[in-house]
Amino acid sequence: MHDTTALLVELGSVILGLGLIGRFAGRIGLSPIPLYLLAGLAFGEGGLLPLGASEEFTAVGAEIGVILLLLLLGLEYSASELVTSLKTQYPSGAVDFVLNATPGAVAALLLGWGPVGAVALAGVTWISSSGVIAKVLTDLGRLGNRETPVILGVLVIEDLSMAVYLPLLTAMVAGVGFAGGSVALLIALGTVGLVLYLALRHGRLISRAVSSDNPEMLLLVVLGLTVLVAGVAQELKVSAAVGAFLVGIALSGEVAEGARKLLTPLRDLFAAVFFVFFGLSTNPAEIPPVLLPAALLAITTVFTKIATGWYAARRAGIGSRGRWRAGGTLVARGEFSIVIAGLAVATEPRIGPIATAYVLILVIVGPLTARWTQPVAARIEAWRAGKGKGGAGSGGPGASIPSGASGADGASEVRDGAEPGGVRPEPVAAQGDLAPAADQA
User: Fold this and answer.
1) What is this structure's pTM?
2) How far apart are CA 312 and CA 85, in angstroms?
3) Is the Cα torsion angle 143, 40, 169, 200 positive or negative in sign?
4) Using CA atoms, how far apart are residues 105 and 126, in angstroms rounded to an integer?
5) Do residues 113 and 104 lie in contact, with contact meaning Cβ atoms separated by under 8 Å?
6) CA 121, CA 114: separation in Å to the nearest integer?
7) Helices in 330-350 by DSSP H: which ranges?
């Protein structure tokens, strides 16, 4: 079969399959992300029917998918909200690093991988997947929830931390001296600082320059600007996702609203391609030998990420239910973890399979914890409250219910009087499987 013909047939089959998978997931009330990944495993290297002709196109589509996910996420919030979130959430970022990087570093040292392996696996377990989480928030209709800015604050701190972490890891892998590593770090920090300055100080001018009454022109300019900034950021050892997110932050008002409407269908298409490509690039035969240590690491860091989100939301004055939702949403790992493992695999080859298995577990478990952590926590609290009433009287359950809840279901939530923490005072009404509006705090 001619190369072009094979490309069209494979690409058409993949897109059609994604549509059918998405419809099936919607019917059973499940996020389609895990199904996309399993489909990628089935048709990747070592799978049932490997796809070869469309591999390069799918790789480019996956990169665009991550960029669009973060751009649309950035369009939801203004530069002032970003600054407020960073100012209030930096202690949560420190807690996030300690709780989630430590298990990876300890596991690597126990496996005898040495300092480079420890630093690399610490990064794999530390960084949540902005792409997966952005998709989950959209699928569950939670972009307007009061805990969502807290989640974004943690993610932004993680992504911006990559501007420091990735150059340091690259220098360690290459054996570069202190001077070479310092130069790479300064370039990365300068790039992030410049983009942040432009977004904060000249966001209105950028929006005015991009604005157009013609939807076609607006789409082309916004998409071109985003991909350009993402590419430059990637070249300067800064995450392309950070660049795309900051472009979204820089745009505001009618421009942001118009761009959201135009780019949402493209985002959904290329985001699905990203998750399929992640599965396509993984050989299923490499997973079973490392499944047990990867699963143990995944279980540990599920709980540490939930604790991170709960702590961050509590600091921002969010009520009990929102805290659990924030924790469950942060569980997924993805694109950054794979990038980190790819950098270190030349020095420590064993990190590749275990990182792949670890990410596959959490990228499947992540959407499930995002949906079910809060309902499960509510049931446990209700059970504990009922047990306390049955044994110790009406005063018993109060000590067992997290702060922010006045009863077994945690119905009494912090509202507009809460600490800002980057939280919008009047969130958009939530959709999907959310709790009632009174629980949005």
Assistant:
1) 0.69
2) 11
3) negative
4) 10
5) no
6) 11
7) 335-344
Residues 325, 370: contact at Cβ < 8 Å?
yes
Distance between CA atoms of 11 and 55, rounded to whole angstroms?
9
Q: d(Cα 435, Cα 322) in Å, to the nearest integer?
A: 9
Summarised one tens digit per residue, pLDDT across range 10-56 is: 788 888 888 898 888 878 766 687 788 788 877 766 666 666 656 67
- Tokens 């030998």 appear where? 289
Residue 394: which H helix or E strand, with range? none
Taking the chain, what is the end-to-end CA distance rounded to the nearest angstrom? 57
* Rounded CA separation 188/233 (Å): 8
Residue 259 φ then ψ, to 5°: -65, -40
Q: Give me the pLDDT at residue 257, please.
A: 85
**pLDDT tens for each residue of 231-240:** 887 777 666 7
Q: Which class for 426: exposed (0-12), middle (13-18), buried (19 or more C-beta within 10 A)?
A: exposed
Residue 110 burial class via C-beta count within 10 angstroms: exposed 0-12, middle 13-18, buried 19 and up? exposed
Query: Would you put residue 30 in left (φ > 0), alpha (ψ -120 to 50) or beta?
Result: beta
Distant-in-sequence, close-in-space partners of 265: CB < 8 Å, separation ≥ 6: none
Residue that the structure tokens 């860091």 belong to: 301
What's the angle, vertex CA 143, arms to CA 257 and CA 231, rounded to 5?
Answer: 65
Contact between residue 67 and residue 230 where contact means Cβ atoms under 8 Å apart: yes
Other CB atoms within 10 A of residue 25 CB = 18
Q: What angle do CA 55, 350, 305 make, to 5 degrees?
A: 85
CA–CA dist 326, 329 (Å, integer): 5
Residue range 331-352: mean pLDDT, rounded? 81
Query: Residue 417 burial (CB < 10 Å; 0-12/13-18/19+)?
Result: exposed
Tokens representing 159 are 């992504």
Give the chain's length.
441
Q: How many whole angstroms separate alpha carbon 164 and alpha carbon 133?
A: 22
| Tokens 């699928």, residue located | 139
Q: What is d(CA 79, CA 101) in angstroms, rounded to the nearest whole number?
A: 28
Map residue 142 onto helix, strand or coil.
coil
How many whole angstroms separate alpha carbon 350 and alpha carbon 158?
Answer: 25
Average pLDDT on 257-283 reads 82
